[in-house]
Amino acid sequence: MRIARRLLAACIVLTAACTSTPGTTAKSRSRLASPPPAPYLMFVDMSSSDTFKHVVLASLSDPAGPVFVTPLVCERVYFAGGRGLCLAEASADDLPVRQWAVAFDGSFETRHRFPLYGVPSRVRISPGGHWAATTLFENGHSYAERGFSTMTRVFDLEANAVAIDDLEELAVTRNGAVFKAADFNFWGVTFARDADTFYATLASGDRDYLIRGGVTTKSASVIHEGVECPSLSPDNRRIAFKKRIGGARGWWQIVVLDLETMAEKPMWSETRSVDDQVEWLDAAHVMYHLANGSTGADIWVAAVDGSTPPRVLVPGGYSPAVVPLR
Description:
Blueprint: H1 2-19, E1 40-45, E2 54-59, E3 67-73, E4 76-80, E5 83-89, E6 99-105, E7 110-116, E8 119-125, E9 131-139, E10 149-156, E11 161-164, E12 171-174, E13 177-178, E14 185-191, E15 197-204, E16 207-214, E17 219-225, E18 228-232, E19 238-245, E20 251-258, E21 264-266, E22 279-282, E23 285-292, E24 296-303, E25 311-314, E26 317-323
Parallel strand pairs: 12-17
Antiparallel strand pairs: 1-2, 1-26, 2-3, 4-5, 5-6, 6-7, 8-9, 9-10, 10-11, 12-13, 14-15, 15-16, 16-17, 18-19, 19-20, 20-21, 22-23, 23-24, 24-25
């Protein structure tokens, strides 16, 4: 079954690659001769043909301004702890591999490649740079489709090895009892600062659960319900996530969960549906992408307390990651 799903996913990737084109109305960005000093913003450029899908770096003080263009071309990207992971389309010479998870260093040099199967969806790296996680669609193109299937893997970037081949290998408990079902789907990993703990979404039946697990123990427990694509705050005390509102035909609302009290606070200032794993810009703001007809996507920012309305942070951008001082 897994092989059949991988073959189907490969066909989906080919279709997506043929229809991915740069924006036609956005202007090229001004360029920096060297990377900006940390902290800076890393993202995938969607603005013009010459830098389309290149990973670029911008100053946090002027994220929509000039960028340093790296040689990396990615569908998704993330960077933390001196290590990055680029989800990239494979070349024809790489068949049967259709996608690579390309591990790179602070100089944007490739250090290792992991073969992937499916349509790239999510990528995260632990704060210390030890672990990385990817989620790909094996069946379907989005979380809104019925019957979609995902594969989520965890990689050891220090050993250049697969740490957990599929989160379906996890020993999961719920309310102290073993929790296991044939329809499990996992996605949207986010890592804590302790170099082992992670959070992710586990879906079963018609419910989405937040799990907290350990990479080394390959175990996890359900700690909350109704959580998709969690993103841990810089202080590790809150999780921002997307929550389905209004049933199957509803929308995704950004919500912030307090991990101590388990109280939820919706970000009602953002009234549009946000299908993304948000990234924390700082302790008070989150970033996410929204579709744009001219460039494909823009990066937006909003205050988690709703004190200011959402605004465009980077026109023609996607997959943002804040690279802090080390």
